[in-house]
């Protein structure tokens, strides 16, 4: 007790404004359940594992810690009662009736024990203890009572927990137009008014028409008559017949809002057509139930997870799994791949001790510290050990749970701060953006992905040319469906499927025939030239057509390829292309090499006077934006279609929605400057300036955050010290790119299962030590049949 009294002046009591890290070490993945437990400082409330607490003491002099040791007590399932098997009825994770990652496992209870530990001798004093000084008692009790920092972060993100059934009230519901046309809907015996469908029927709440719904991705469903009726009538709301319950609930779809919605006045709207909800019984599957059924019947999940194989678990350095923190498989997949690349290993794993030693006061909020912590967790092998003898055969390996990392990299981001499923390619770009921002004075490992793209424009009248270059980190390739090499097999399968459906049956998932496409057909599509309308030629001082070709002027150390599997159908419904792409193990992209200005070519002259800014049909612009497309994309579409109308512009958008510059600020074709120039989003710039910042400060913030307004505001407040620093001149800003041969080998790929990026699951396959390994969240095993043809993102290494 005398030793403790020497340090009373340094002990503090945390308040609700302090972050208390009592779940996990800020430098490692040690926690109260670890063999050595967790030490929480009574001065700054950081949680530290045994490997880091001594260094923290030596660096800060903080000597008094609350030592937390947790014992896991499993409650046998036999004591819980057998009960029926849990039925999934909600397309949701971590909510009632949704997917429960813990279902089927033995229930777990915990028993915590506490001591006061004093360094450097690790002298222990039992807790609770009425003889302890009051300040110590108050500090410890507050640490135990306050929610942990990770819990607070989780609660903050909980509002974004993915739940397929949380729907917003429709803006059309309150003042919905309902015609007095004399129609009354019978309680049963419904049939589509335009075909013989008697299932998947939708009652339009405005005119009482009963029509079949959309066709599902597996060919089942309706014939799209309900959506066609909306295009003709513009009546926005329809309810799915058979899903109406006595409590006034049902599936309501808003065609105008393109989403499932809530209709607070549904009972009233149904009464107009003679339907009394108190007499209704649910007879059809809801859209959520159908989505679940379709996902379960698809054989994609089994193929990508290699469910048909007896996978052998593998342990040791580099074979550490990551727990799924509620739709965090996109994060797990990306980070598993990045920490297999030497640039990332050298920057964060090899330098982890230095990074930890130089850590700021709050390591949990430091990007480099959390990257180093994750690198050590994945690569050291400390958290990847075989289960003890006698463990259940199907017991999940523990892996690591990067809560602090996820909280940090998602902070302030409207999507990645939530628990919603995210697109893995977008998250990778987000991580690489953070790397660039946080490694201004260090070697940025993300440079290994960067390459320079060359765009060549040739004026159709003068034949003069213009070259523009830009920086990219991902080679995104369209999939030419008409290049399938098994069209006859696919057609035969589609015929068999239609025949089965005509008899009320469905083909088994194993009989699925996917279109097969050679990867080089995707490359060929990329290299084809494109006709550009309304290109402003400085040679003729007017608009002409121009021919655009795209090539690569540099080849990166690591080539990241995205296959654009997510697209829109003609009716703007998002779909995922279910195709098999023959991805090669070795790849030579030398044919993509650009060569710049050639002998005999003449450059277009520089513009002396900027051409007039084009005018847009404001009504058409508003209609396109109402469809959900970005303003700059709408401008580009209207311009490229000569302002002839919404239909032509929408068709152009459908064709170009995956272009890399789709959401960039619109610039008149032919007036682009060099790629190093930055064009801020006009609306975002105006918003930031209206808040009292100068145009130069607003431009700088938008430039550092890829024109993202929310992130730009966060950037401004976190970089106040260098807001007035002059930007380097254009010459010093010229990017340098690594370059080499165009020969590569496949080292990893990430696959997506499901019908949309906002749902489903990601699985990673990595080539390690000459063998393919599957990383499925916490499960790590030797791969027997790596599904290379079904991937979404592919990582190639230069050879």
From TrEMBL:
Residues 320-799 form the USP domain. Its EC number is 3.4.19.12. Pfam families: UBA, UCH, zf-UBP, zf-UBP_var. Residues 615-656, 679-719 form the UBA domain. Keywords: Hydrolase, Metal-binding, Protease, Repeat, Thiol protease, Ubl conjugation pathway, Zinc, Zinc-finger. The active site is at 329 (nucleophile), 761 (proton acceptor). The keyword Nucleotidyltransferase does not apply. It is an enzyme of class 3 (hydrolase). Residues 168-277 form the UBP-type domain. This is Ubiquitin carboxyl-terminal hydrolase. It comes from Hypothenemus hampei (Coffee berry borer).
């Amino acid at each position: 007790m005398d030793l403790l009294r020497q340090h009373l002046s340094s002990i503090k009591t945390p308040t609700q404004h302090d972050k208390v890290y009592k779940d996990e070490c800020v430098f490692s993945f040690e926690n109260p359940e670890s063999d050595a437990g967790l030490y929480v400082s009574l001065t700054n409330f950081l949680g530290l594992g045994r490997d880091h607490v001594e260094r923290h003491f030596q660096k800060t002099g903080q000597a008094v810690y609350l030592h937390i040791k947790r014992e896991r007590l499993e409650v046998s399932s036999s004591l819980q009662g057998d009960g029926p098997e849990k039925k999934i009825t909600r397309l949701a994770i971590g909510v009632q009736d949704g997917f429960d990652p813990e279902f089927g496992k033995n229930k777990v209870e915990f028993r915590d024990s506490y001591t006061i530990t004093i360094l450097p001798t690790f002298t222990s004093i039992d807790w609770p203890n009425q003889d302890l000084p009051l300040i110590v008692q108050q500090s410890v009790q507050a640490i135990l009572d306050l929610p942990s920092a990770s819990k607070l972060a989780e609660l903050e993100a909980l509002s974004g927990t993915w739940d397929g059934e949380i729907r917003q009230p429709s803006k059309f519901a309150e003042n919905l137009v309902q015609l007095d046309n004399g129609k009354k809907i019978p309680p049963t015996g419904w049939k589509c008014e335009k075909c013989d469908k008697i299932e998947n029927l939708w009652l339009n709440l405005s005119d009482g028409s009963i029509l079949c719904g959309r066709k599902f991705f597996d060919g089942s469903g309706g014939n799209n008559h309900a959506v066609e009726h909306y295009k003709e009538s513009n009546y926005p709301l329809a309810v799915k017949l058979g899903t109406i319950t006595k409590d006034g609930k049902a599936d309501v779809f808003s065609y105008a809002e393109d989403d499932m919605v809530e209709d607070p006045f549904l009972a009233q709207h149904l009464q107009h057509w003679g339907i009394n909800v108190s007499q209704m019984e649910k007879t059809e599957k809801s859209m959520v139930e159908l989505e679940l059924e379709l996902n379960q019947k698809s054989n994609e999940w089994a193929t990508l997870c290699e469910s048909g194989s007896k996978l052998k678990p593998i342990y040791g350095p580099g074979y550490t799994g990551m727990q799924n923190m509620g739709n965090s498989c996109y994060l797990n997949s990306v980070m598993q791949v990045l920490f297999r690349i030497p640039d990332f290993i050298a920057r964060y794993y090899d330098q982890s001790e230095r990074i930890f030693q130089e850590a700021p006061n709050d390591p949990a909020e430091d990007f480099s510290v959390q990257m180093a912590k994750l690198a050590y967790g994945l690569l050291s092998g400390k958290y990847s050990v075989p289960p003890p003898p006698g463990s259940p055969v199907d017991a999940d390996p523990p892996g690591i749970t990067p809560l602090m990392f996820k909280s940090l990299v998602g902070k302030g981001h409207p999507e990645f701060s939530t628990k919603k499923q995210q697109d893995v390619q977008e998250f990778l770009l987000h991580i690489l953006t953070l790397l660039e921002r946080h490694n201004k004075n260090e070697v940025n490992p993300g440079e290994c992905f960067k390459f320079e793209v060359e765009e060549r424009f040739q004026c159709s009248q003068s034949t003069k040319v213009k070259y523009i270059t830009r920086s990219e980190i991902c080679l995104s390739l369209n999939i030419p469906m008409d290049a399938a090499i098994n069209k006859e097999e696919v057609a035969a399968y589609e015929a068999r499927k239609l025949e089965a459906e005509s008899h009320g049956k469905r083909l088994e998932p194993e009989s699925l025939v996917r279109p097969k496409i050679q990867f080089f057909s995707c490359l060929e599509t990329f290299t084809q030239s494109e006709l550009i309308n309304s290109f402003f030629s400085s040679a003729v001082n007017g608009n002409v057509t121009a021919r655009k070709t795209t090539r690569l002027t540099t080849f990166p150390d690591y080539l990241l390829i995205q296959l654009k599997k997510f697209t829109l159908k003609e009716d703007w419904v998002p779909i995922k292309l279910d195709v098999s792409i023959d991805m090669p193990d070795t790849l030579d992209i030398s044919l993509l090499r650009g060569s710049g200005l050639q002998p005999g070519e003449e450059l277009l002259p520089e513009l002396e006077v900027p051409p007039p800014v084009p005018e847009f049909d404001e009504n058409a612009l508003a209609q396109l934006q109402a469809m959900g497309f970005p303003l700059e994309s709408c401008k580009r579409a209207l311009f490229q279609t000569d302002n002839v109308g919404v239909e032509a512009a929408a068709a152009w958008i459908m064709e170009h929605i995956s272009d890399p510059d789709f959401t960039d600020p619109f610039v008149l074709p032919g007036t682009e400057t060099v790629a190093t120039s930055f064009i801020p989003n006009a609306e975002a710039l105006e918003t930031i300036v209206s808040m009292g910042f100068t145009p130069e400060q607003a431009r700088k913030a938008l430039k550092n955050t890829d024109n993202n307004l929310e992130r730009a505001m966060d950037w401004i407040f976190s970089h106040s010290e260098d807001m007035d620093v002059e930007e380097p001149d254009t010459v010093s800003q010229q990017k340098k790119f690594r370059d080499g041969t165009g020969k590569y080998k496949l080292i990893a790929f990430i696959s997506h299962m499901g019908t949309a990026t906002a749902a489903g699951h990601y699985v990673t396959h990595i080539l390690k030590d000459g063998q393919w390994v599957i990383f499925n969240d916490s499960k790590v095993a030797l791969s027997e049949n790596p599904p290379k043809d079904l991937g979404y993102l592919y990582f190639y290494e230069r050879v």
